[in-house]
Amino acid sequence: MEQVSAALQLVVNDPATHERLINYGIDLVGGTPAEFDTFINSEFTRWADVIKSGNIKASD
Question: What range defines the domain where residue 27 resides?
Fold first, then answer.
């Protein structure tokens, strides 16, 4: 996760990318690799429940 976190920091620190993300309404938040890992794991759990309860299937 540290490599992913570092790569994301490079991307969001690029002024053009930063501005574009802000214009899309994305809230950019910094954090440590451990915080990023916690967030990603919570998102997996959150969306897994939605997918299961909605019986959502991937399509080709």
Answer: 2-40
For residue 38, which phi and psi values (nearest 5 degrees)? -60, -45
Rounded to two decimals, what is the model's pTM?
Answer: 0.52
Number of domains observed in the structure of the chain: 1
35 within domain boundaries:
yes
Residue type, 57: K
Residue 59 phi, psi (nearest 5):
-115, 160
Contact 36, 4 (CB under 8 A): yes
DSSP 27: P
pLDDT 10s digits, 27-44: 887 778 888 889 889 999
The vertex-41 CA angle with 40 and 47, nearest 5°, equals 85
- Whether residue 60 lies inside any domain: the answer is no
